[in-house]
Amino acid sequence: MQPISIHDQNSDDVKLVTLDDDQDGEVLTLPSPPNAVARDLLVTQFQMDHWLRPWVRRERLGLSPSLASVLYLIRDEATPTLRSLAERLDVTPTAITSITDRLETLGYVRRVRTSMDRRRTQLEITPAGREISLRIEESFVEEIQAILGAWDEDRLLTIQESARTLSAFLRELNAIDARRAS
User: Fold this and answer.
1) What's the confidence (pLDDT) of residue 29?
2) DSSP letter (8 states) at residue 123
3) Average pLDDT per run of 10 along the chain, which is 182 residues long?
């Protein structure tokens, strides 16, 4: 008998149902089509942003989410420059300069001219910047641990695998964007 395709409106999955003569069926769930996955990724990004912004404010760490993100990137990158940060964040050099100016005013980063090319400026995180960045990271981890503490092992493994998969996907997207830019 021919399979019947049923679209699951709750999940965007497609279910194939095969019925034999006595009406017993087998259901095969196929993954969402790429456009549904893209929509899910967009919604996930909005939901993370919607959760993250009030969390940063609630923690009273003195930084907006954008300042905290840039500070984290500066801490994480070996020799960041204004240009490399702007490219990584896909923002204009003017925007990253403005954010860096605020971080410098707060005493969290400093600009350092390279000895090889005096026109090139690298960014260095200060001890105060490293401390606030680590506090933000620790606070974030504690918040997430408090939520995940009630989850069973299977659910934790699922979210961990999903996070790793999403991270790998985002690295792939960034690599594609970098190739397009060059």
Assistant:
1) 58
2) E
3) 49 54 55 72 77 71 81 85 84 88 94 77 92 87 87 91 87 76 68
- Are both 39 and 26 inside the same structural domain? no
Query: Residue 99's Cα: distance from chain center in Å?
Result: 19
- What is d(CA 144, CA 155) in angstroms, rounded to the nearest whole number? 14
Helices 127-148 and 34-58, interaxial angle, to 10°? 120
- What token pair was written down for 160? 């961990």
Give the separation between CA 50 and CA 38, rounded to whole angstroms: 18
The encoded tokens of residue 156 equal 């934790």
pLDDT score at 154: 93
CA 177 centroid distance within chain: 16
Distance CA 169, CA 182 (A): 20
Question: How many structural domains are present in the chain?
Answer: 2
Q: Which of 44, 106, 45 minimizes the C-alpha distance to 74?
A: 106
Q: 102 and 76 in one domain?
A: yes
Beta bridge partners of 109: 125
Q: Would you say residue 3 lies in a domain?
A: yes
Instruction: Report how far residue 84's alpha carbon sits from residue 81's, in angstroms, rounded to the nearest whole number.
Output: 5
